[in-house]
User: Fold these one by one.
Assistant:
Number 1:
Amino acid sequence: MPVEYKDYYKTLGVSKSASTEEIKKAYRKLARQYHPDVNKKPEAEKRFKEVNEANEVLSDPDKRKRYDTIGPDFARYANAGNGGGRPGNFTWSYNGRPGAGGFEGDASAFSDFFRSIFGDAGDGSGTMTADELFGRTRTRRSRAVSGQDVEYEFEIALPEAYKGLEQQIEVKEQSGKSRRLAVKIPPGVKDGQRIRLAGQGGPGSGGGPAGDLYLRLRVKPHPLYQRDGDDLRMELPVSLHEALLGAEVTLPTLKGRVSLRIPPETQNGRTIRLAGQGMPRASGGAGDLFVTVKVVLPTKLSDEDKDCIRQIGERHAEDPRSSLL
């Protein structure tokens, strides 16, 4: 039975002068249209194979050159017999890559016309799989996958958050093994902030890099200071006479002890600002410390103490609640 000539250019709907890019574009369009994953019509599979075969030839420069050479005189070539030699009045040779050929290794998927020209030398290099065609990637090698990121909580005290620290910590892996890591925490870190240890997470696969380990910091509450962003707030107990007459008191801060002047006649609840005595800022400098005066009234008063207070009250008889009336 004579072998039927196939016009691959017509199959793809392109001209004989079409560029590689035009051929690729036409193939993608038709392959999507007739791919068995999409088109369930009975004739779609046959059309899909024809489109793939045409692309197999026209997308390969060597195959396309051989096809263009033999095509116009295919009848005489076929009569001369399959194989190298002198079909008609010209000579040809093919230096393509040897292989099993065909669609995903099946040489029988090619037509008799294809095999009469190329034998089983078609290696399927121009054929796209369904995964490639629809934007999915598939490879024979294991895909490099990055390791999983891991997160641990790490608790520190407020003075440690103020100064920063370097220390060894122990982390336990999913396998049950423990390992020690050096951690450097910069000054001024906040509660909930994360510290990244690059490459210390789960191992990668297929040559992929290891994941990262994140330490989520938990800053423990402090009995004296309350944090407000980069500022600190505290209450300072002062005695009644210190509030009335003024005083110089020693105040503890995270930086060290400082002197604080309590002005005379300081009212209970007054707030005094100490610039730069707060938490270190990442951008440089530090926040402030706000000290709220808490006047502590004396107890266990003697009769003499009570007489003195009455005398003071009589001399300063203004009603502190007059503004409320």
Number 2:
Amino acid sequence: MQIIQLLEQNTLFFLTSIALLGLLVGSFLNVVIYRLPVMMQRSWRYECQVFLEPDSDVDTPKEAFNLSQPRSRCPSCQHIISAKENIPVLSYLFLKGRCKHCKASISIRYPIIEVVTASLSVATAFHFGINVQTIYALVFVWVLICLSLIDFDTQLLPDNITLPLLWLGLFASLFNVFVSPTDAIIGALAGYLSLWSVYWLFKILTGKEGMGHGDFKLLAAIGAFLGWQILPLVIMLSAFIGAVLGILLIVFKRHNKNIAIPFGPYLSFAAIIALFYGPKINGWYLAFSGL
């Protein structure tokens, strides 16, 4: 209780603490974004080999590979990164974006993800204040950042992230954190079925798959967190962002229009906007339309 009172009395200390937490979470997200798809691919390969060749000796990796093992290494020289070299943002600046051992370039994407995570964490805490909503909103935002980048890299939205997010949204509704249980359940159903219907309509008309099933589950999770009332805004905003960026890619980068573009980042970006301003935007729209 004393900690809560201290945070309430000192807004700067509260936001600074959230920023530091965001940097640490961003560093962890970098690990998840890279390793989880690799873990999934290894698991699929193993399961396929067991299914297709049940009587043969299944090759198992000699070294454990999960979110904690092995320790992070330089991809160029395999130098094991020490704790001092793994401090969010500061290590990158101190090392001037290069490996300490071989001087190979380190992608600037890592500190960018850490800074973006910290910035959105501070924005979330500032918006909701010191209450239980902030805790759930922070987790929501962190997970959306992670899913966006995994989808961008691999066009995968892992079930072991989207489904827990869905259940967390439903659990939060039991305490009316953002919406009531009724709104959350309808939001989850409507979120899944809306994109599921679009998927099948597009497939029947064109014979092609327009989106992955992970998009259905992600929108269901968004609906569980924010309620069914916010779904039209999320769908329209994500579709608009996706259409604009898709056109820009085709025009300026000669992007093949037949190449799939991940939809998860657009859904996530729209969901974060809806988290902060969804009720206000809906209110403005209803007032403007006279409804």
Number 3:
Amino acid sequence: MSAAVLDGKAVAARVRDEVRAGVARVAERGIVPGLAVVLVGGDPASQVYVRHKHTAAGEVGVASFDHRLPEATTQAELLDLVRALGDDPRVHGILVQLPLPPHIDPIPVLDAIPPEKDVDGFHPDNIGRLAQSRPRFIAATPKGCMRLLAESGVDLPGAHAVVVGRSNIVGRPMALLLTNAHATVTVCHSKTRDLPAEVARADVLVAAIGRARAIRGEWIKPGAVVIDVGMNRGEDGKLCGDVDYAGAALRASAITPVPGGVGPMTIACLLENTLAAAERSKG
């Protein structure tokens, strides 16, 4: 078996086209969707992500507001900025780039984002709504994963889905989305006793643990669909995912590449959320 490649770049391009059309539609009502991105410090990976987000926003007509703060920014200063953005009518979506410097607690910062502007979907109000199957905003990476699963044609109701990783950013919301789609969901983590056995039962596998090629190809159930959220540097210095792609592709029916899989979907779905926030702001 040779797995079909789930091309995140191609699907993300379609999502951006949909957002571009939506931006033109709301422009007729005098609305320009606005996204504010806040970056604290000089983390190189975060700088790349933020640059890509601003570029993508400009390509679809979303106004972007770039706030870059020095590493020494205090928690109080960051909270003041977030609250000011919450009051700014030009800003429909607020994203605080993670990770923050060690001296800043991210929880009160993310909690300070108004839920109706929380396009990252991290606010407790939005997570709670997702848990009740009535979401407002869905975290962009899990949302992108669900779109890729839809594109793969996988029949989720009744399927056994395994999510490896339980972070608030990917693992937990991903498990909720799959549950809401009527899959039977297992969440694995660092305390899971027999990870290979759990992975081997998965009709759908979502890997989000941040360890290069930690999930071996021979663990994959033949015919499974594999969504690899990981973005790591392997020992050879090349970008790779959490799954051993070469081995998994011999057994899976469909798989996302790294890079070019989930990554482009995250930014596209962030823009989709920003458009939705702008539409909601005017009823």
Number 4:
Amino acid sequence: MTDIAIHTQGLSKHFAQRIALESIDLSVPRGCAFGFLGPNGAGKTTLIRMLLGLAEPTSGTMRLLGHDLPSGRAEALSRVGAIVEEPRFHGHLTGRENLHVHAAARDRAAHDRVDGALHRVGLGRRGDDRVKGYSLGMRQRLGIARCLLCDPELLILDEPVNGLDPAGILEFRGIIRSLVDEGRTVWLSSHLLDEVQKTCDVAAIVDNGRIVAQGTIAELTGGGVRNIDVVASTPARAAALALQMRDVVRTAQHDGALRIDFLPEAPPTPEMVTALLRRLLDGGIEIASVAPVTHSLEERFLDMTTRLEDRS
């Protein structure tokens, strides 16, 4: 377990009228950017609050940075920096003063890290401005600077890019990757799937309080129905011929091409694609191009979760 930053087993949280989380088994490797994905209300913040000691689980076990919780929480949290929901600061104080207020709750070394933390997040020149004049993006960056005061092994960030413009999101992504490059672990809880795909190495998807998938980004985007796009002279005829093949489950027009979906348990091998093309050519159809379809994390998320079905 020395290479695991966060480990939970059978973790559940029940409220009087609902189940927030049920039987969460989760392992977060050290030294990676970990995405915790789910729709609003799926249980993401509830799990963070339990890890940080802000809520107690109904059942199950938690282990954080090698320490069992809750018995070892003080030791574990001494090397954890966290932002839960939007970071809060004293608006009448400067960014630097806010960090020193926070550092006072830690050791002397935390005060010595204030200047470095401000520069690290791009606030070196704005550290002496009052926070009430900061933009949302600047407050988010100040929140990360506050996390860095304890020289954390683990950062837990809850929806940290909410409200940021594209430039701010790109800047934030660079900060996260630089922290991981130093060997730190970053937990990124978000519903912004595209951003997690671009930032994280490993992810878990939670829906209705349960983990529905976890693994590397490549593993999560690689499963499910596999597709190819074919640009053909007569798409309707090509679709009819493709559907005669045993492993083809559906066809549809997509961005000027015919998208052909194969069974999840029968991804399209070169031999299968060759057989498909031979069938189309034998049927008198001219083929302009054939291309595999790369799935996004968003597409896989929608395949795995039930939330849209629940709302219909």
